[in-house]
């Protein structure tokens, strides 16, 4: 049995594998034949796994983060070992995983926040940048969660609750349309096609891992939409969209609150992950909704000096034009 088949079987058996590391998720965002995985096995059992996507363009080989995937990185089977042995065990397994990677010119991957030890990669010449997501924990006490929203946001929720009705049966094409309005308002091109989102949504639906919340007023206008995903430990704000002409209704904040309630009451989960953000305006909204900052690692490495110089020059020129 090859590594991918073994990994697919592991994903069916192991609930601790995060959403973005699961085989069906990778099939969706990469394509079934466009990703691979490194495995470490001990006594016929998989103890560590590293899924990755590799692309080749103009002779340049890149291992990168897939579309719509907040984090990836290694999965390591947990043990009851003492701390010193646990760290040594992680160092060894992560080293073995990365030593199996095919030759590349550039590597970039964001790790799950639960992975906090990248020392083995530091020893191998990789670099690390700390990024942040925002997470609301302790959803068993929704009264406290609501109280942790800034007062202005609580008022927005109450106001929006009178203006719109919230449902969870939005057609994926309607969601895509309002999702695109958000990018258009920011002057950004669409990062994915309608066909990509249709396929992605179908796979998530087949795996019972998504709900699409939306707020519609009495005139039939959709103010805001929120695409929620989840695994066995947390839900995630995967995608959002808002009508720029209706942003002041507070519907977007109301949907966050409804998604939090759904996470606690229907999914029985204790964590709600905003999937970021490092953007100034978005980060403030996450904090004002009660999100707590949680760091995660962004790991990179250049093996091509030419590519390193090219990217450094591009960054310098971009900075100079700001």
UniProtKB/TrEMBL annotation:
SUPFAM superfamilies: Acyl-CoA N-acyltransferases (Nat) (SSF55729)
Domain N-acetyltransferase per the UniProt entry, residue ranges: 161-312
Positions in coiled-coil regions: none
Keyword flag Transferase: yes
Entry keyword set: Transferase
GO function terms (MF aspect): acyltransferase activity, transferring groups other than amino-acyl groups
InterPro entries found in the cross-reference section: Acyl_CoA_acyltransferase, BioF2-like_GNAT_dom, GNAT_dom
Name of the protein described by the UniProt record: GNAT family N-acetyltransferase
Native source organism of the sequence: Emcibacter nanhaiensis
